[in-house]
Specification:
192 residues; mainly alpha; two-stranded antiparallel sheet; 9 helices; globular
Length: 192
């Protein structure tokens, strides 16, 4: 039975209008990067990165490892880990508000399953960028590993065909901004 308050697009408190399709350039870039996933080894590597980044797991683990190994900055590593979780949660909140559908499976043949059906912004990109900024703030030499690893995580979401480039860019901006805004807190100072 259908009626007011039921059916596709209904959410508690009303309906959300459908989100517009991403611009042509966004789709073309996704086609190029998704096609790269068909090359030997590339698709498997991208799937592995996507799996490791699910719910920010690899970045949360890295932060906790930092807290164990780097005892003088333990509190900072724990704060950084909390920021990674916070960036991930913030991206999920934005996803629920924007409600952009993931790239159509019939057009992009995703290489992985996803936890949800909304794509903007990429939570993988949010947590990766937050980790890169937060952890490099605490221990600058790790940026040589973290920045390329975070970039690879971001690109992996395109290669597996589950995000548009603008999803990934917005997620990375959200994560980096979250961590950058709390740099003083990370290092033990008050938040400005």
């Amino acid at each position: 039975m259908t009626g007011p308050g039921s059916g596709p697009g209904h959410v508690r408190g009303g309906t959300h209008p459908p989100t517009p399709r991403p611009p042509g350039l966004d789709r073309r870039l996704l086609h190029v990067l998704r096609d790269v996933g068909g090359r030997a080894g590339v698709g498997g590597a991208a799937r592995g990165l996507s799996f490791a980044g699910e719910h920010g797991a690899v970045w949360l683990a890295a932060g906790l490892l930092g807290a164990v190994v780097d005892r003088p900055r333990r509190a900072g590593w724990l704060r950084g880990t909390a920021l990674v979780g916070g960036a991930h949660l913030a991206s999920m909140g934005v996803k629920r508000a924007v409600r952009r559908a993931r790239p159509p499976a019939g057009e992009f043949a995703p290489l992985v399953r996803t936890a949800g059906r909304h794509s903007f912004p990429s939570s993988h990109a949010s947590s990766a960028a937050a980790a890169a900024v937060a952890f490099a703030t605490l221990h600058p030499p790790v940026r040589h590993v973290l920045v390329p690893a975070a970039a690879a995580m971001c690109v992996s979401r395109l290669v597996v065909g589950v995000h548009y480039p603008t999803d990934v860019a917005a997620g990375a901006l959200l994560g980096a901004a979250t961590a950058a805004a709390a740099r003083r807190w990370l290092t033990g100072g008050p938040v400005a």
